[in-house]
Amino acid sequence: MLKIKTCPTCGSKRIRNVRRTVRRTVKGKRYVVPDLEFYECPDCGEKLYGPEAMRRIEAYSPAYAKSRRIALPA
Ligand SMILES: [Zn+2]
User: Fold this and answer.
1) How many angstroms separate the CA atoms of 2 and 6, rounded?
2) Distance from Cα 9 to the centre of ligand 1, integer Å
3) What is the reported pTM?
4) Cα of 14 from ligand 1 centre, angstroms
5) CB-based contacts of 25: which residues, under 8 Å, 6+ apart?
6) Residue 65 CA to ligand 1 centre (angstroms)
7) Which sequence spans correspond to the domains of the chain?
8) C-alpha span between 48 and 56 (Å, rounded)
9) Over 60: is that where the pLDDT of 68 sits?
10) What CA–CA distance (Å, rounded) separates 1 from 33?
11) Which of the residues 1, 24, 36, 61 has the least number of beta carbons within 10 Å of its own beta carbon?
C-alpha cells in the first residue's frame, strides 16, 4: 500500500486511507467495486488509488473485462 501524507491536489494533510464500496462509471456503464481501499481527501474530494486498488478496479470494470472482446473504435 502506498503511503500518502499530503494531498497532491490541494496539499491538505487530512487525506486519509479509507475502505469503501466504490461506484464508478466508464463509458456510460456503471459498475461497483466492493470493499476497495484507497486514499480520499476530505477537503477537495481527490481520490488516489494504489496498484492493488487499480487491479481490483480493473477486475470489476466492464472496460477491462477479459471474458468479453469488445471492438473499440480506433
Ligand atoms: Zn485535497
Assistant:
1) 12
2) 5
3) 0.74
4) 8
5) 31
6) 31
7) 16-64
8) 14
9) no
10) 18
11) 1
